[in-house]
Amino acid sequence: MKGQNKLFFAIIIALILGVAIGGFVHLQYPDSAKPFSQNIKLLGTVFIRLVQMIIAPLVFTTLVVGIAKMSDIKMIGRVGSKAMLWFISASLVSLFIGLILVNWLEPGHVTKLPIQDAASADELLKSSKGFSLEDFVKHIIPKSIFEAFATNEVLQIVVFSIMFGVALANLGDEYAQPVIKLFDVIAHAILKMVGYIMWFAPLGVLGAIAAVVATNGFEIFKVYAIYLRDFFFAIAVLWLVLLLVGYMILGNRLFDLLRRIKSPLLIAFSTTSSEAVFPKLVEELERFGCNNRVVSFILPLGYSFNLDGSMMYMTFASIFIAQIYGIEMSVGQQITMLLVLMLTSKGIAGVPRASLVIIVATCSMFGIPPEGIALILPIDHFCDMARSMTNVLGNALATSAVSKWEGQLDNHGGDM
């Protein structure tokens, strides 16, 4: 754990330095803030791209090996059904928490936000147009596995990997074992790369945070203080619920799990990317004691279907925009919106700023001005930090819970 602690403290130091450097530039050299942000943001870009580079091969190899090693199709169905039960339940709970708290706290009624120029939302408005069942199907089923690899379409890679893994499991040991062994070696080699790449994380954190603070300064926290306060309170409630459920299932081992995933949580929070910690999360969950077959099967599915923080944010932000425009929605309409979000959010997993795209599409559907997304764009980065961190926690708990239910959770972790 010594290396893990060093990385954790390096990230904390980078986070503080990022805020200090960004604040200094914003206050002392405001004219240079924009070019400074563009340049220092490259540190974050380098880190994210290094991680993105290994996601597709890691998801593919670990998932294929996990399923092929199960060999028992009934086991695949059993593990998959338990995972989906968790995902659907967690998504509904997250959506309901967002819905209840935004109605209770009413941030849109008490906050006087400056009306933003809708031009800042143009890109998102274009992204949401034409969102349909056809797009949903196209996003799930790959036209070409090479295209899915090239664009890091995790959901499409998952679909292909499951089918390939099941086929391999039914091929017979004579043909399957050499392929499984090859993929297993590749997976472990990529996990070895994770260790090297994670040492770029502090630089990535410093670059991402410094860029945001240099551009927006500290004033943005004052302007949106109420919205941020209410949203982070809602996130805290969601964390409390998730941790209580986790404790009921894992007992005192929950605290060991949290110690294991503290660096992935912090990296996700700082870089606003739960995707950036996927390889590290695989490694830490296996060290925690989760069966590697279960991890390699459940975690990629979780990244497509179990985004608890994003789910809660969708209802919270959609109703907030309605409140800003003085649009009153009945309980029935809000429940309908919740169910629509539950379905449509599964269709664009892996899309950049997916939560915002879904919010725009949902607002259009319910007669709420979609341009209202421009109101929350300036602080979406800070909300995204909490969303990403919560998504990582939800997927770690889901994987650990399914491992426990399957009797595949070792009493003690260890090095791989």
UniProtKB/TrEMBL annotation:
The species this protein was found in: Chryseobacterium luquanense
* Membrane topology, from the record: Multi-pass membrane protein
Q: Which domain of life is it from?
A: Bacteria
Grouped into one coarse class, the protein's main location is membrane
| Keyword Transport set for record | yes
Compartments it resides in: Cell membrane
Q: What is this protein called?
A: Cation:dicarboxylase symporter family transporter
Keywords, ordered alphabetically: Cell membrane, Membrane, Transmembrane, Transmembrane helix, Transport
Q: Where are the transmembrane segments?
A: 7-27, 47-71, 83-105, 154-172, 193-214, 226-250, 319-344, 356-379
Gene3D superfamilies from the xrefs? Sodium:dicarboxylate symporter
